[in-house]
Amino acid sequence: MALGQEFAGNQPRHGRLIVLGLDALDWKLVDELVDRGLMPNVGRLMDRGAHAILHVPPPLISPVVWTTLATGVPPEVHGVLDFLEADPGDGLPRPVGSRSRKVPALWEMAAAAGRSSAVIGWWATFPAQGPPGCTIYSDRLTEQLLGLEGATPGVVAPAEAVTIARQLVVRGSSVTATMLEPFLEVYETEIQAVRSGDASWDDPVGGLAKLVAATVSVQRLTEYELGRGTEVILSYVEGTDTVGHLFAPYRPPPQPSVPETLARRFGSVVDRYHAQIDGWIGTVVMAMTDSDSLVIISDHGFTWGDDRPPAASGTHTATAVWWHRPEGVFLAVGPQIGHTQSRRHLDVLDVAPTLLAIAGLPPGDRMNGTVPQWLWSEAGGPHATDPVDYAELLPRRKERDIQLPIEAREEELAKLRALGYIADSGRSAVVARTRVDRTEARRLNNLGLTRFSSEDLEGAEEIFLQAIANDPSYAAPHYNLSLLYRRKGRFEEADREFWKSVESGIADREMAVVRLALDYRERGDTQRALAVFLEGQRRFPASGKIWLNAGVFFGQNGQYPEAVRSLRRAAELDPTNPRAHANLAVALLAMGQTEAAREALTEANKLNPLDEAIRSELERLGGPTVSQ
Known about the structure:
The protein has 2 domains: about 5-395, 3-Layer(aba) Sandwich (Alkaline Phosphatase, subunit A); about 435-620, Serine Threonine Protein Phosphatase 5, Tetratricopeptide repeat (Alpha Horseshoe). Helix content is about 50%, strand content about 10%. By secondary structure, it is α/β, with parallel strands linked by helices. The protein is built from 27 helices and 13 strands. α22 (about 525-540) runs antiparallel to α23 (about 545-555). The chain has a 9-stranded mixed sheet, with helices on both faces. Mean pLDDT is about 85; it is low at about 315-320 and about 425-435.
């Protein structure tokens, strides 16, 4: 008997394990929607199961984190480091795939243990290639991510699953008004644009149609695998993240830049989509038996509240990660799983060994995570077992490399740009071979971040420098290196790398300047803070943010003439900002210029009549107040 067969024959049978990966599912939003009755099924699972905050270190990049969750090892071990990788054939950038993963994933481990398994839509699963007993519906199957035609080799494996996939997968162009009714009332012209293929991700209705199509596809495939009795199912839904990138700015209270008409039309889409996901979760629960277990996980949270960034996600800029919160969801129910009265904490590397334990299987020998004791019911969880080298149990296979046409690769990259996952270089990333260095630099930068987050500062510095060597114009490793040097007290080098990142176009450069200056102020280094503000004013003479924060800094340090100069400039640049006028008034009062201070406070009061502090000070100075 072969080693794998002997191992599989010795594993005790448990009930089925169903894992629902819901990208960016956020506890703060879930708790709100449960309280409002929009996610009753999740609420019931919380009442009977175990739930925890999942702590996720940077980089908060979907293919990286989802591969960590599926393998139980950090990115530098599993090998998936970014959205893109260099094609070994022609060196051009392509979306990351299964070839980059260097270790077994959970669906393969389950198959090695003799369990039938299926993975649906998970990141970095193309080309689809699995051991006997494992069905892979890859991340290129649905339009949500990098959808390819169902006839493309490698989209689904084994061959007999291809027909099922073709029958169950829905394309965005096939979405009807009826399918969109639970989320939004649409016009006939909008549906015509969707069905003709003219509606893009940048269009709210077109984007919604595509994410609904992908969601329905994953749900149908999951229900199919449940119906055929598959023992381990891992399904991934991207829509819980994309609905945020498309519609979070409209959700009440809408962001200031959102027109009122659009806020009224699109403001409820996020909540309605999550309610639909909750209904699907209820369907999955209804298909389970008493011996089955269900786990819901997310790779990170989402900034739904006041912490929403000012810039929209998508629109061809790499802003998606700005919206991500480093806290994901973990929720489990099953016959061996207890109920946690309060929300516990779990590390991202704990997830894979925990899922294996719930399935009654031993951990992988390269996994460093632990299975939490609070997970189990009073009867206790499974007995501890020695780790297993799953790679040794899996049959050797020749890696399958599918060469896609240039047009198909460019379309995949266009989708990543449209959703804000990668930046737009302004030209074709496939045709322009100069982007290859950026591809490798991104991967190295992400690897450096993982080293940095694990406190391996020396290793992180080395990797960041390698990233810069691959592409000196890439801002991110310069910025991360500046953070690392500040951590190590190497401030001259830190400032040098910071300004290089600014020159290279680091995201939200003006606020980056403000944050650096305030960081130095918090450290007690007012001279460096002063130098940063002055350099920021020189480089960004039209930045109201920098002039305002510099003015406040000058005032706090008793430099009132400089404070007045900066705050006057801030008020000129951003005349509708009450903070600029109010802080100008404080500086003017400190210089004894009462009348000018009264005028500045009067303007601040007009702009923000609800601010009691402004009204009180204005009344004290004898000025007229405005109230609402």
